[in-house]
Write a structure and sequence with these properties.
- The protein has 6 helices and 11 strands.
- The protein is of the alpha+beta class and 249 residues long.
- The strands form 3 sheets. Strands 1, 2, 3, 4 and 5 form a 5-stranded antiparallel sheet that branches. Strands 6-7-11-10 form a 4-stranded mixed sheet.
- A hairpin with a 6-residue loop joins strand 6 and strand 7 (133-137).
- The longest helix is centred in the middle third of the chain and has 16 residues, at 100-115.
- The two termini are 24 Å apart.
Length: 249
């Protein structure tokens, strides 16, 4: 089931109410109807009766493509009941948002993350003020071997490397969570190398701008599963605590 729904480029929370029979397992995808590889959400769940998904969309397309897909392959026993546009709650009160550096990077990162699916790999992308640079690669490598990370930042000059192979798998919010984590390392952290501090500082920005908790949770879980370690277990525990304090769907 596919529905095109106008959002007119206005940030919002999109409330999609679906119905399902007998714990029907479905996947909800919302993307830009006019831009390739631009998922705004991609989530699954089981539905008996009615269930409303609240999709937080800080960067909205003119027209959203809403897809409801059966996980069991049987195209029956489910559907979309209602679609409603609601206000997106944001919180810019933290001191991080008062920095002009943060404002510049956020503008750059949002444009990059939204268009990462159509941007060419093996190219450099620069912010308008030339302060920030992203090196967009097919994969991030060390010594010819692919590194299991979607992005990393140089501790010497702040150059950010991004893996297109990973970003193509991610929703726009997932991409933003990763980019803000890398930015926090170099530009916000008191201890540049501290991963837990970068997680916290990046998520303060991410959640403040109204991005969905579930996408940040999913992308960090993806990273941790690909690189299991005691440090990543510590990060996972710290993130869970932060998410519980800042629940926003």
């Amino acid at each position: 089931m596919v529905v095109e729904y106008p959002l007119y480029g206005e940030s919002c929370t999109l409330a999609v109410t679906v119905w399902g029979e007998n714990n029907k397992s479905i996947r909800l995808i919302v993307e830009d109807a006019e831009a390739p590889e631009t998922m705004l959400t991609n989530r699954t769940g089981s539905v008996s009766g009615l269930k409303t998904y609240y999709v937080r969309i800080p960067i909205a397309p003119d027209i959203a493509l809403i897809e409801l897909l059966p996980e069991d392959g049987r195209d029956s026993g489910y559907g979309i009941e209602d679609i409603e546009v609601m206000t997106l709650n944001t919180d810019y009160s933290h001191n991080h948002f008062k920095s002009s550096e943060v404002q510049s990077f956020v503008n750059f990162a949002e444009e990059f993350c939204y268009n990462a699916g159509s941007y060419a790999a093996n190219a450099m992308y620069h912010s308008d003020d030339e302060v920030f640079t992203i090196k967009y690669l097919e994969n991030i490598k060390d010594g010819g071997q692919i590194v299991a990370t979607p992005a990393r930042i140089s501790q010497s000059d702040g150059l950010i490397e991004v893996s297109k192979a990973d970003f193509l798998r991610y929703t726009v919010p997932m991409r933003m969570a990763i980019m803000l984590h890398e930015f926090a390392h170099f530009y916000v952290n008191e201890r540049m190398e501290d991963e837990v501090e970068a997680d916290r500082n990046g998520l303060i920005l991410y959640l403040g701008m109204g991005y969905p908790r579930i996408d940040a949770y999913n992308v960090f879980l993806d990273v941790f599963e690909n690189s299991p370690s005691e440090l990543n277990m510590e990060r996972y525990q710290a993130l869970n605590k932060l998410f519980k304090q800042n629940y926003n769907g």
